[in-house]
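Hi R.,

Here's the chain you asked about this morning:
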Amino acid sequence: MNGNNNANKQMTLKDAIGKYVKDDCSITFGGFIGRDCVAAVHEIIRQGIKNLTVIDDSKTDMMDLLVGAGAVKRWEGAYLGYGAIGLAPNIRRSVEKGIPAKFELEDWSNAGISMRYLAGSLNIPFMATKSMLGTDILKYNQRIKVINDPYAGEPVALVPAAHPDVAVIHVQRADAMGNAQVWGFTGNDENKARAAKHTIITCEEIVATDEIRRQGNMTAIPFYCVDAVVQVPYGCHPQSCYGYYAYDVLFCGDYHEAAKDREQFLSWLDRYVFESEDHAAYCAKVGWSRLQNLMTMERHFNRIPG
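And the predicted structure, written out as tokens:
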């Protein structure tokens, strides 16, 4: 928690990433089964940031892109993959062949990472959980400490608090101060914002504070946890953003196929990231009509008015 006041925190994505995300820093990304911070990841790669330690739960596109671009030194988390589409090609290539470089892996369960961020958000050194007991994770992760519960005498696992240097979290809407509203599943985002030293909010829309106050119960992340606010429409593509646009599964499938080959991946990266000046240029390459169709699909299937 950074204790920021109610100043206007709007800035460009380029400036926000340049100011807060540095070589060798630790980072986490918001979203879980949607609201992935893909635009921010593109900008991190565009700026050539390296040696990141990513402390997270489960991630797909974002980690595969970062690993393929050689930006990641270490991963502390649970699942890495593409679900029904398949394994994450760059991650597998890095682990098996050290291309472009081998990164460190520290295994946790999703619940274990959640408890680490809960401890971080409360500013306490650790949290107790029964997650991971009875699994092989304990054999390979020496930072998980098993003790006997002093009350019932049963074993519990202690996990250390997570305090990443930066949290990047995409939300549906925020005001210029940083009050951020999440529609649908929040994952660990509230706790990540409080546990991190700095928080960048990217959003579909920046709205007036009066509008935020009309639905104050939707404000998952308050302004005092936030350092930067960036409006990035379609900032999750090809992943979904509930209430705004649907998952572009065909685009993900095309990426996954290209990423199986190192040279094809690098060509994809050149086309969509390095040759795109910013996220708007990326969207233009994807196709504004395609993105509009994803919005229409989202409104239809979730019966969203407008």
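The mean pLDDT is 95.

Let me know if you need anything else.
M.
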